[in-house]
Write a structure and sequence with these properties.
Blueprint (H helix, E strand, L loop, with lengths): L1 H23 L3 H10 L5 H9 L5 H8 L16 H7 L9 H11 L6 H13 L16 H13 L5 H9 L20 H18 L3 H16 L29 H11 L8 H9 L30 H23 L1
Helix pairs in contact: 2-3, 2-14, 6-8, 8-10, 10-11, 10-12, 12-14
Amino acid sequence: MWCSKSVAVHRKVRADVIVLDWLLDSDPAIRWQVLRDIADAPIDVVAAERERVATEGWGSRLLALQGEDGQWAGGACFPERRLYLSVKNEGQPWISTLPTLQLLHDFGIDPRVDRVRRAVEAVRDGCRWEHAGEPFFSGEVEPCINGRIVTLGTYFDQDMDGVVARLLGEQLEDGGWNCEAENGSVRSSFASTINVLEGLLAHERATGGSAESVAARRGAEEYLLERRLFRRKSTGEVVDSAWLQFSFPTQWHYDVLRALDYFREAGDPPDPRVDDAIQLLRSKQQPDGTWLLENIHPGRVHFTLEDGNGRPSRWNTLRALRVLRWYEREAKSDESV
């Protein structure tokens, strides 16, 4: 029995090392986060790797694609009209300013780097929303967009207080948000809610938040938790099977891994109501220790980051492993009490 258990432990350790090596054999945008979140590397090693995001690989490539007008692909949410018309049949294009800045944020590019600061200043001064020509960091009318703008503006050191105040005034009675509220919807949307939640958390971390914003964020967390992150509150049925498939980039879309990663980032001990979602996450780990890319959101991209649906995904593996670290660390803490 002892020997069998020892062999099993050895195999798991060896598999973990192989996955770690595979994750590190990648772009600086992934490597620095793996070093920080999985490998527990020294702070100076992590910082040195993070600096490379702005000068090498994907981060540098994205920065180089910014136009002289301060925008990517000539638009805020969508490319300029002629380009949009040429690619719209592929799905929503992901090459404009909003999804590009979101990628730079997800890459963890250092916002203090001069090249990055200049890029953000160019967006601030030159990019306007298609809705009514509002300045980019002032947001527009949809909470699913404005939540993302709060995340980005906070990360890139812009004043987001006005957008946050607007979002707080738009929270629905059930605790979340919905971009269709202006058309009469009184029920929240998982997608709108996760976008706003991420923004409120980022703003709260940066500014300390307010009693009102903290209460709004907690109420929105409860909205998701009451539904166990993917089930109907009334029947317990899965709301949308697409949410059980993990994407990267997530764009504006919702899925279970994105929700779990939010709760990990929030840093509270796991609520028991995430257990179903954690079970789903564990069930998707492959025999080689990786997680797959399952649901690419169609549309033009600047360049591909991974090998496609059904293939091992470094991004999803990194995100899944750090979620499980958070969940299992707290579980062990409870056992030791």
